[in-house]
Specification:
This protein has one domain. The chain is built from three helices and two strands, in the order ααββα. It has helices at residues 2-26, 33-53, 66-92; strands at residues 60-61, 64-65. It has a two-stranded antiparallel sheet with strand order 1-2. The protein starts with a helix and ends with a helix.
Length: 93
């Protein structure tokens, strides 16, 4: 139980840092911060579960599949950024 809780906390903190760092690097309005955070949390969880399902052992930190979870987080962050850019271009036209 302790390993699961610590993995959950570590994953939450790391994915939050990914979302905040992504917004810090790319900028944009402050209203996009919750979008980036949610996208990072969702992608991190999906990446972790896919890494667990595929039994992917590269950069595993305890029970946390760090590599696959990080890839999932960054892919969903890029997807949400692309959707936000398209939305802002559509509303300005």
């Amino acid at each position: 139980m302790v390993g699961t809780a610590s993995g959950l906390v570590m994953g939450f903190l790391l994915s939050t840092a990914y979302g905040a760092g992504f917004h810090l690097l790319l900028g944009g309005p402050a209203r996009r911060i919750p979008t980036y955070l949610f996208a990072s949390w969702l992608g991190f969880a999906i990446g972790h579960f896919l890494g667990d399902l595929a039994d992917f052992e590269f950069l595993k930190l305890g029970a946390l599949h760090l590599f696959s979870a990080s890839i999932g987080a960054w892919l969903t962050l890029l997807l949400s950024w692309g959707l936000a850019i398209n939305e802002s271009q559509d509303s300005s036209a």
